[in-house]
Structure formats: C-alpha cells, structure tokens
C-alpha cells in the first residue's frame, strides 16, 4: 500500500465522519468543515503533483473522496437554505413579545372628557348633545367617547365600598 493510498483512505474516513456530522447535527461548525475540505484539496494537490498515473484502488478512493466532498457541499447548501428560510420567516413574523402599549388618548382629549365627567358627577351619562359636543371637541368617535365614559364610571364605582362590606374593612 502506497503513501498516497494511505492518505486517501485516511482522508476518506475523516470526510465520512464530517458528512455524518453535517447530516446529523444542526449546530455544526461549518467553518471547520470548510477548512477541512480546503486542507484535503491542498494535501491531495501535494500528493498528486508528481503522480502521473493512479493505481486502480487509489483512483476509486479518490472518486469516493470527491463524492463525499460533493455530499458535504450539498448538505451545507441545504442547511444554509434552511437557515435563510427560517431567518426570513422569523423576520416576516417578528413579534415583539412585550405587552402592547395600546392606543392612548392625548392629554388634552382626556382632560376635556374628565372635565365633563367631573361637572356631571351626579349623573355621568351622556345624552345626544353632550356626546356630540365631546366628539367634536376631542376629535374622537362616538364609540371612543362612550367607552371612555363607561370605563370612567366603572373605575369610579370600584373606589367606593358598599355599606354592607364597609364593616369588614374598618378597624372596630
């Protein structure tokens, strides 16, 4: 067995291991594999530089090496394609997992509605003319004004404790 054949067999077994790693492990160091393949070709070039004719077994092993390199290249390209497709899908559906801030009314809009509410605290329910007036002054829709007032009434109501429950919260 010649030095070339030994080298070819050694190279083939290393490339088989690398191809299995490339097919099996998603987080493989692709740069390491690329450098390994470059090293294989440099060493092959050195061995083959003065070799005019290859023996049959050397030729077969060299063909196997070229097939393994092609396989590794294919696996690398497929992995790259998967990574790029995943990156695109993540970018397309880039969710910000923070709670949404929501649409807030401006301070001026809130102040206008709060003033109306405080003036009408005894009966804080909108009639048609009040609704229209607030809608025009705030620039909000009828639904937005109605919902804000409804929320404000619920919030105000929750601040008070009913007479039946008051005894449970006082220190007597």
Residue windows where pLDDT falls under 50 for at least 5 positions: none
How many distinct helices? 7
Proportion of residues in β-strands: under 5%
Mean pLDDT: 80
Task: Give the SSE order as H and E letters.
Answer: HHHHHHH
Shape: rod-shaped
The value of Rg in angstroms is 38 Å
- Report the helical percentage: over 70%
**Major sheet summary line:** none
**Domain module count:** 2
Describe the oligomeric state of these chains in a short phrase: single chain
Global structural class: mainly alpha
Query: How many strand segments?
Result: 0
Subcellular location: Nucleus
DNA-binding region: 98-160
Main location: nucleus
Pfam families: Homeodomain
Key traits:
single chain; 0% strand; 172 residues; mainly alpha; Arc Repressor Mutant, subunit A; 74% helix; 2 domains
Summarize the model shown.
With 172 residues, the chain is mainly α.
Overview of the molecule:
With 172 residues, the protein is an all-alpha fold. The chain has two domains: 3-92, no CATH class; 107-160, Homeodomain-like (Arc Repressor Mutant, subunit A, Orthogonal Bundle), CATH 1.10.10. It has seven helices and no strands. The chain has helices spanning 3-24, 30-48, 56-92, 107-119, 128-138, 142-159, 163-169. Helix 1 packs parallel to helix 3. It is rod-shaped, with a radius of gyration of 38 Å. 10% of the residues are buried.
């Amino acid at each position: 067995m010649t030095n070339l054949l030994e080298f070819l067999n050694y190279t083939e077994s290393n490339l088989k291991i690398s191809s299995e790693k490339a097919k099996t492990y998603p987080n493989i160091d692709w740069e390491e594999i690329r450098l390994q393949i470059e090293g294989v070709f440099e060493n092959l070039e050195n061995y083959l530089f003065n070799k005019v004719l290859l023996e049959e077994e050397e030729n077969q092993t060299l063909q196997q090496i070229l097939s393994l390199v092609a396989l590794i290249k294919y696996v690398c390209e497929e992995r790259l394609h998967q990574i790029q497709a995943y990156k695109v899908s993540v970018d397309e559906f880039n969710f910000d997992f923070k709670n949404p801030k929501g649409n807030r009314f401006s301070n001026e809009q809130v102040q206008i509605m709060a003033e109306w509410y405080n003036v009408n605290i005894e009966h804080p329910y909108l009639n048609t003319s009040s609704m229209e007036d607030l809608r025009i002054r705030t620039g909000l829709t009828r639904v937005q004004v109605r919902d804000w007032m409804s929320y404000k009434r619920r919030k105000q109501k929750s601040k008070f404790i009913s007479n039946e429950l008051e005894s449970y919260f006082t220190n007597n």
